Amino acid sequence: MKKLLLVLSILLLLCGCAANKTETPAEEPAQENTEAVEETAVDLSGLSIVTPKGAPVLAFYDQIENENYTRVTADAISVLWTGDQSPDVLVVDLTSGIKAISNGAEYKLGAIITFGNFYLASTGNDENDTMDADDKIVLFGNENMLPSKLWHYLYGEDYDASLLYEADAQAAAAALGSGKYSDGTEVDYVFLAQPALFAAMKKNENAKIFADIQEVYKNKSGLDMIQAAVFIKNSVDEATGNAFLDQLSASIASAIADPQLVEAGLGVYTGDEATAQYGFNPAVVVNVFKQKNALGNNAMGLGFAKAIDIKSDIDAFLKIFGIDETSEEIYFK
Q1: What sign does the dihedral 49-52-56-57 (CA atoms) show?
Q2: Structure confidence at residue 144 as a pLDDT band (50, 70, 90)
């Protein structure tokens, strides 16, 4: 009798376990997750995007054939902040965008996509290979532009008597290539950005990189340098804007991991047409992109950071230009 009762008890226990297992539907959670993913899908095909020609184009290598993506000269950006021509997404240097918002442009700061591609190069004319106060140093632009502001933040006023300004990066590149200022004066150092630096050094076998400005800036400030920024129009809803930023972040990460993707994307145009479309020779830029700077990043400075996440870096960089600390209200979240 005891054995019979034991067997019956075991049978009842096994039946109870089987019943408990069949009460929980295994497939339902998976179905719910699928529905959640479908609900969060966002159509980005209608977003209009404008970037200046030059380095920012690298971030949009996979959008070259997108009919809503336009590349313009840098001086054409200023008229796009207002009116019917203003795009949903506008890429421009950080300071210009912040000033535009302060002047009423209805945009928010979404992300930073370039983190510095400036270098100080030696022409080979300096005999002691040491930057002294009487060495001739070429900057491009004028005293109120980024190269000069950045130079003075990093090096102070000790070299002011020896500074020479070329009108633009192309003229500064010519100075590095020849070792001479536009008036024929022999120069020792040239402050220049990639990819103009790469091309200029090919023309002067004695030229070499003297200082990586990104490294100098980080050593002084403890922060990363900031250049091109992504601004999103206020009319773009939060879900669409964040989906766009997520996609941009992923495509940039893929490009950094595999520069061949950039080469393939930019291959939509070739030769002179490519230079006209992008503002650079794709072959040169991809070559530079594959190189590393002193911080271990790609030499073109391409990257991605959501702006609100690096607000302290942004405010520190803007301080160089005498711009007040930003309000969180101007950030896309």
Answers
A1: positive
A2: confident
